């Protein structure tokens, strides 16, 4: 059975009219993304869906407190956690840059820093484990730099719905 979950959060249990004879309900196992009407390439294993991923944030806007951004391009409304990679760059040689993101208030936050950038455009990248989505499709970030312009990029490569 398949249900379109692009714009609504579907329930973990379905008991509608399209069930096969003899079944009283069906459990939601995964929300699989589509692109142009086709399923995206991915792997569902142990409750985790992984795929090539999508960029959900690229910003130069400095933030000293965790500020919200949407991950709707990469995680469905049903997603409870997401994983991927985070990177930071600075356009000024010798500048320190620090960025991070997580759930509201920094819950489960992952941080990345380039201290100091050894060349203009220098930076760092790190993968992050499953981060809790404390609000549907919403993550929070901070970004600081001692000079120059720091760029923080967040990519999502997987999520869970449980």
Account of the protein in words:
- With 162 residues, the protein is an all-beta fold.
- The chain has one domain: Sandwich (Jelly Rolls).
- The protein is 0% helix and 50% strand.
- The strands form 4 sheets. It has a 5-stranded antiparallel beta sheet with strand order 5-6-13-8-11, with no helix packed on it.
- The protein is elongated, with a radius of gyration of 19 Å.
Attribute tags:
single chain, 162 residues, mainly beta, Jelly Rolls, five-stranded antiparallel beta sheet, four-stranded antiparallel beta sheet
Quick structural summary:
The protein is mainly β and 162 residues long. The protein is 0% helix and 50% strand.
CATH topology: Jelly Rolls
Strand content: over 45%
The Rg value, from CA coordinates, equals 19 Å
- Give a quick account of the main beta sheet: strands, pairing sense, barrel closure: 5 strands, antiparallel
Topology (elements, then pairings):
Elements: E1 13-14, E2 26-27, E3 34-35, E4 38-39, E5 43-45, E6 48-59, E7 63-70, E8 81-90, E9 97-102, E10 110-114, E11 123-132, E12 138-145, E13 150-160
Antiparallel strand pairs: 1-2, 3-4, 5-6, 6-13, 7-12, 8-11, 8-13, 9-10, 9-12
């Amino acid at each position: 059975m398949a249900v379109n979950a692009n714009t609504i959060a579907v329930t973990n249990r379905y008991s509608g009219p399209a069930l096969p004879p003899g079944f009283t309900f069906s459990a939601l196992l995964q929300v699989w993304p589509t692109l142009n009407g086709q399923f995206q390439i991915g792997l569902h294993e142990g409750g985790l869906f992984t795929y090539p991923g999508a960029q959900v944030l690229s910003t130069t806007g400095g933030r000293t407190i965790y500020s919200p951004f949407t991950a709707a391009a990469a995680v469905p409304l049903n997603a409870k956690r997401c994983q991927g990679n985070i990177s930071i760059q600075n356009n000024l040689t010798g500048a320190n840059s620090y960025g991070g993101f997580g759930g509201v208030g920094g819950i489960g936050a992952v941080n990345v820093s380039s201290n100091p950038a050894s060349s203009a455009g220098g930076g760092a990248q790190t993968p992050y484990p499953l981060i809790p989505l404390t609000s549907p499709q919403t993550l929070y970030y901070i970004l600081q730099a001692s000079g120059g312009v720091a760029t923080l990029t967040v990519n999502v490569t997987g999520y869970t719905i449980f």
